[in-house]
Amino acid sequence: MKIALLGYGRMGQEIEKIATSRGHEIVIRKDAGDSIDITKADVAIDFSIPTSAFENISNCIEKNVPVISGTTGWLEKYTEAVNLCKEKKGAFIYASNFSVGVNIFFELNKQLAKMMSNLKDYNISMEEIHHTKKLDAPSGTAITLAEGIIENTSKENWKLGTEISETNIPIEAKRIPDVPGTHTVWYSSEVDTIEIKHTAHNRKGFALGAVIAAEWIIGKTGVFTMKDVLNIS
Ligand SMILES: NC(=O)c1ccc[n+]([C@@H]2O[C@H](COP(=O)([O-])OP(=O)(O)OC[C@H]3O[C@@H](n4cnc5c(N)ncnc54)[C@H](O)[C@@H]3O)[C@@H](O)[C@H]2O)c1
Ligand SMILES: O=C(O)C1=N[C@H](C(=O)O)CCC1
Fold first, then answer.
1. Which residues does the annotation mark as catalytic?
2. 72 is in an annotated binding site
3. What is the CATH architecture of 100-199?
4. In this structure, which topology does domain 2-98+204-230 adopt according to CATH?
């Protein structure tokens, strides 16, 4: 498979190692300011920056190249990308987190939220910790976790910070050098605390998931999620 890497930073370079070890060829490595011919690639993997993700994704869809995006912090344009993909009969996957472990954690989080939804003595709160170079907060993964709780409880929104409220899930975003990504959800009452936590030890899990998604999307048309790729029920 000929792969275009849209963004050749920490993730782009990690993906290159995994993709080549699985027999794929990197034909484009795009960074800021580079102009490229995306049609040279069978599939594109975008791990760039929040302000460039939509342009990268729409260029792929316009040129009929399937595209995987892991860039976070651009979701105000997600619906536009979905509509463009449907109109052009393209193929597109966005995931806030491509690791298999986090995608299992997303399902566990929804199940726990369902079980806790009627237990009003518990306050929900969340924390995400990432390296200091991260541009967005809260992390895309934290937003997906919060959405999973909102779907299954009476919470209506999430809010950055630590303030406990009836309607909002507080998300504390911490930045500590070299942390690849740690997410915790707490349900705390006066008598006890339930905690679920995912800790990434490095970026390999994110990169492997993105390459698996790229392999999976070839020959398909539509807008998909990692749940489709991993066949999680
Ligand atoms: N979904 C996931 O599993 C997952 C995992 C890790 C990181 N991320 C996200 O992926 C993104 C990249 O993370 P990173 O750690 O590799 O960041 P990084 O800063 O190391 O790399 C981003 C790269 O994008 C380049 N870039 C800037 N403008 C561009 C453009 N117009 N086109 C292409 N590339 C451009 C930058 O020059 C840089 O090399 C972030 O949004 C991060 O939150 C997602
Ligand atoms: O390093 C990052 O940046 C990460 N971003 C994703 C997010 O925002 O959730 C996934 C974890 C690593």
1. 130, 134
2. yes
3. 2-Layer Sandwich (3.30)
4. Rossmann fold (3.40.50)
